[in-house]
Specification:
The protein is of the alpha/beta class. Strand 7, helix 4 and strand 8 form a beta-alpha-beta unit. The protein is globular and about 50 Å long. Pfam families: Lactamase_B.
């Protein structure tokens, strides 16, 4: 290759990298929260204005990889935190693929045990690569960036090494505050944990944006809990025409009766929310 061709190629690559940089810098205005469209599962990406990034769950399969590729520049292969709310396949499996391709600085999980090959692979990879792990427990707080904090509301006590019969109930529940806007991420908790949160953490669960628990299952989103949360909007991560009938008609009725608008990934695809410190936000 001649000198001029090499120079042209270098210039083109440089221009491409610069363009990507500008595009992704512009996308960092305010807080970005995206509920990925990963089918029947959960995966939520959060990016602070300073560039810090959090991934909550990875959904089933590897659909999360394409979703990450849409929001991260090709040269960014790190994540500041990965949160595994609980080790069911529709939350865990995608994370097994993510950690092979992206380097998380820390993992937040409960540490409960689960008898699946994917969970064994997850544990083995985390341990063999020396990835730091924090075991979630109510009261833990994380200062992610300016104006941005996260707090663990559940589980109420340490779960490391336990083997619960109902793993959904051990889900990590997070409250996130960005300026004047608040969020609640609920994993797959069901009515029992919702009731406990509504009683013990009533002020903490009162938020603007709710990520609906368990894909809108009839076992979650009780009227008592929704009245405690009083969200302005509810986000549901759910697969199209799924065999579980999620979100349940009676759950949708509860939201409708309480005047809470619902946004769904099975109808709209990935749900993107951009928030600003003054409490304003837009969903597209």
């Amino acid at each position: 290759m001649s000198f001029w061709k090499k120079l042209t190629l270098v210039c083109l690559i440089g221009a491409m990298v610069f363009t990507w940089y500008v595009v992704f810098q512009e996308s960092r205005e305010g807080l970005l929260v995206q509920v990925f469209d990963v089918g029947q599962g959960d995966s939520i990406f959060i990016q602070a204005e300073n560039g810090n990034q959090i991934l909550i769950d990875g959904g089933p399969g590897d659909a999360v990889l394409a979703q990450l590729g849409n929001v991260l520049p090709f040269y960014d292969r790190t994540l500041d935190m990965i949160v595994l709310t609980h080790p069911d396949a529709d939350h865990l499996d995608g994370l097994v693929e993510v950690v092979k391709r992206y380097k998380p600085k820390v993992v937040l999980e409960t540490g409960v045990l689960h008898d699946t090959a994917q969970y064994g692979e997850w544990r083995s990879y985390i341990e063999s690569h020396g990835i730091p792990v924090i075991h979630a427990q109510a009261g833990e707080k994380f200062y992610v960036a300016e104006y941005l904090t996260m707090e663990v509301l559940s589980p109420f006590h340490g779960q490391e090494g336990e083997k619960p019969k109902q793993v959904n109930q051990t889900s990590v529940v997070l409250r996130m505050d960005y300026g004047e806007t608040s969020f609640l991420f609920t994993g797959d908790i069901e009515s029992k944990v919702e009731r406990m949160l509504a009683m013990a953490q009533r002020e903490a669960v009162d938020v603007d944006v709710l990520k609906v628990a368990h894909h809108g299952s009839k076992t979650s989103s009780t009227e008592e809990f929704l009245k405690a949360v009083t969200p302005d909007v509810a986000l549901v991560s759910v697969g199209r025409n799924n065999r579980y009938g999620h979100p349940a008609p009676e759950v949708l009725d509860r939201f409708r009766n309480l005047g809470i608008p619902v946004k769904r990934t099975d109808m709209a695809g990935a749900l993107t929310l951009q928030a600003f410190p003054d409490g304003t936000y837009v969903i597209r």
